Amino acid sequence: MTDVRKTIVTALMETAGMNVREQAIRVLGALHTAGYRILGPDEVDAVTLERAVVAAEERAEWVPLKAGDMATAIRALGRKA
């Protein structure tokens, strides 16, 4: 994935002379193409949560909680949003 700042700057340079709304649309499109996802406040991403669950389960012996408890807590974050 490219650096987000570089992606935004490149998109803006390509939109010189366009109105701000069109620039915003192009920047969002460039970010999406580069693999970024934009989440609003308090939103969570299911894919990221599942990665956290897998990491918690793989490292269960490092933390005092049971992996199942940690996984349940992480998944609960997704249900709150």
- Structural shape: elongated
Strand runs, count: 0
> Which strand-content bin applies to the residues?
under 5%
Give, in order, the helices and strands.
Answer: HHHH
Kindly name the structural category: mainly alpha
Give the overall pLDDT as a whole number: 78
- What Rg, in angstroms, do the CA atoms define? 18 Å
Largest beta-sheet characterization: none
Question: How many distinct helices?
Answer: 4
- N-C termini distance: 26 Å
Quaternary organisation: single chain
Number of domains: 2
Which segments are poorly predicted (pLDDT under 50) over 5 or more consecutive residues? none
Share of helix among residues? 55-70%
What structural keywords apply?
2 domains, 81 residues, single chain, mainly alpha
3D structure, described in words:
The longest helix has 14 residues, at 20-33. This protein folds into two domains: 4-33, no CATH class; 46-80. It is built from four helices and no strands. 63% of the residues lie in helices and 0% in strands. It has 81 residues and is mainly alpha-helical.
Secondary structure elements and their pairing?
Elements: H1 4-13, H2 20-33, H3 46-58, H4 67-80
Helix pairs in contact: 1-2, 3-4
Q: TL;DR?
A:
The protein has 81 residues and is mainly α. The chain is built from 4 helices and no strands.
